[in-house]
Amino acid sequence: MLTILSGLGIGLAMGFVMQRGRFCMAGGIRDTYLQRDFTMVIAILIAISIQSLGLFLFYEWGWVKLPEGHFPWLATLVGGVLFGVGMAAAGSCSTGAYYRAAEGLAASVMAVLGFIAASKLVRLDEVKGLLKPFKQHQLEDQTLYQTLGVSPWVIVLVLVLLTLWLALGYLKRRKRPVALMAPRKTGLAHWLFEARWHPFVSALLIGLLALLAWPASLESGRVGSVGISGPSAQLWDLVTTGNTKFFSWPGYFLLGLFVGAFIAARGSAEQRWRYPGHKVVLFGFIGGLLMGVGSGLAGGCMLGNALVGTAYLSWQGWLFIPAILFGSWCFNYFALLRPMRLAQI
């Protein structure tokens, strides 16, 4: 029962914060090369730094265990590129698709369905055999500090100081005022459902929740934090066969994530059915499929790799980010940038 409650509770809070904070890692990565806006990149670093700092403290105190294994560099690289292409096609990462589906966006609903189906597909024995050649290429060192031969605290300190420097520099720069509508709610309701959430505040909360997930999920015998790739495959089994054998902490987290985002969307009057057209919906489904295959190959999605893997300083997490950046850029170059440039000629 404790496993169910902690998984649901952290998932509810994560879904609520992501929806209200509009915390979309896909959009943040896209903004870096389309608008030269690094706001969300800094926010992601804040979430990683908070989690990493707390995680190694928890490890010193014996509250958590760290993942062990080798670094499947080729699978991470290829999977990350596929995930990035799918993320750009769908207009959001897998986690963003879940909370936008809770808002009623048809394209995101299809992205979630595609992601769930592909997450299950890549875990079938026949498909695992096809992907095995990618996963056989491994390096012995799993983490940055193993390769560099230093204490993890050295890298954590550098990461935290870099994040502080970037965040403080960003906050010091003058920003143009944003026009806001007169509030219709007061007190706690206003702050929860109406006020504009700063990305850095959302990142701080997400980092803390991801940190709490480490000891919470360990209670169920799982070493790790949040993620939705594996749980999405578990959800397929639960819905199609009623099989609850492998449905554990991550699965309850995933359910909580969706419900939390739905509550936030309803409370902020952002929950309504929206159909953006056949083409956008089709791209959402295809993007979800690619993200599911990519995350299965790379061993994690945006949460599992880009947020959690980076926090325990794994090569897998830190290689995944540039890989999805490249995949996202490739799709957007041919879908957006190149047509815009040709139109200007």
Automatic annotation (TrEMBL):
TM stretches of this protein: 38-59, 71-90, 102-122, 150-171, 191-214, 246-268, 280-298, 318-337
Broad class of the protein's primary localization: membrane
Membrane topology: Multi-pass membrane protein
Residue ranges of coiled coil: none
GO CC annotations on file: plasma membrane
Record InterPro entries: Sulf_transp_TsuA/YedE (IPR007272)
Protein location: Cell inner membrane
UniProt keyword rRNA processing, yes or no: no
Keywords: Cell inner membrane, Cell membrane, Membrane, Transmembrane, Transmembrane helix, Transport
Similarity remark: Belongs to the TsuA/YedE (TC 9.B.102) family.
Protein name per the record: YeeE/YedE family protein
